[in-house]
Amino acid sequence: MRNQMLGTIGGIGVLLLTACSGGESDPVPSAGSAHVEPSGQGSDGYASDGHESDGNESDGHDSGQNSDGWSYTGDTGPEAWAELDASYAACAGDAQSPVDLSAGAAAGATAALELAYTASSATVTDDGHTLKAEVGEGGSTATLDGVAHDLVQMHFHAPSEHTVDGEPAAAEMHFVHAADDGGLLVVGVLATEGVEDVAWAPYLSAADLPAGRSVEVPVDWAGIAPDVSAYRQYPGSLTTPPCSETVTWVVADAPLELSAEQIAALDAAFDDNARPTQPLGDREVVLHE
Ligand SMILES: [Zn+2]
């Protein structure tokens, strides 16, 4: 269920634990001993230095074209997603994400949202569309209206997908949670340029991964958890194919501050990996303060 909802890693079975940084200083302390399943290793040259391209991929980070057939530009871009594959039909639905958070906003009853995050290892993968950090051991949860959701993965978009008064932020982080019944809760936070946030350093250390590769890093989930003391909530969808309309969205009012260098690292990994905003329709964005 989760895998169907959240998608899979780029269609490539090869994971490799090198940060592809030339080895001058390994930013990934646990890489040497961490677990990996290199299903294609040894027969395709990946093990040698991790730089070879693959027949299924084009040329890496910014090409936008992935083996799952969709991208952020051109003939396979957002306007075409619903037509690319029968399983992507929901992308033309009327409860899609992202949206502009200013439109239709109204104060609502306060719903308690609690993030209980703990540090854990995470497997960070360049899946051809973003850097996806999948949670290892740890048991981080988000509880909304009494319903617990497990933190599954976190990734980014740059610029942001949700907008405020039509304006995107520099980037947006998505913390994806799943409940036992398969319902998804995604907590988003907009990132603006400011002071460096060192808690993001381990995740950002993977920003130069080649497409299809993974690295295991320690993540202080509590240290990077969004401030959800005030947030906006609405019903929506995955912002990437298959665009399933199974997501309760929460976007924190308080932005995340990252340094110009940290934002540049995100942009260097994936530029313009953001879906345009979708019509709100008859949905309401509810403010919780
Ligand atoms: Zn996302």
TrEMBL record:
<feature type="compositionally biased region" description="Basic and acidic residues">
    <location>
        <begin position="49"/>
        <end position="62"/>
    </location>
</feature>
<dbReference type="InterPro" id="IPR023561">
    <property type="entry name" value="Carbonic_anhydrase_a-class"/>
</dbReference>
<feature type="domain" description="Alpha-carbonic anhydrase">
    <location>
        <begin position="68"/>
        <end position="289"/>
    </location>
</feature>
<dbReference type="InterPro" id="IPR001148">
    <property type="entry name" value="CA_dom"/>
</dbReference>
<dbReference type="Pfam" id="PF00194">
    <property type="entry name" value="Carb_anhydrase"/>
</dbReference>
<comment type="similarity">
    <text>Belongs to the alpha-carbonic anhydrase family.</text>
</comment>
<dbReference type="GO" id="GO:0004089">
    <property type="term" value="F:carbonate dehydratase activity"/>
</dbReference>
<keyword id="KW-0479">Metal-binding</keyword>
<keyword id="KW-0456">Lyase</keyword>
<keyword id="KW-0862">Zinc</keyword>
<feature type="region of interest" description="Disordered">
    <location>
        <begin position="23"/>
        <end position="78"/>
    </location>
</feature>
<feature type="compositionally biased region" description="Polar residues">
    <location>
        <begin position="63"/>
        <end position="74"/>
    </location>
</feature>
<dbReference type="InterPro" id="IPR036398">
    <property type="entry name" value="CA_dom_sf"/>
</dbReference>
<dbReference type="InterPro" id="IPR041891">
    <property type="entry name" value="Alpha_CA_prokaryot-like"/>
</dbReference>
<dbReference type="GO" id="GO:0008270">
    <property type="term" value="F:zinc ion binding"/>
</dbReference>
<protein>
    <recommendedName>
        <fullName>carbonic anhydrase</fullName>
        <ecNumber>4.2.1.1</ecNumber>
    </recommendedName>
</protein>
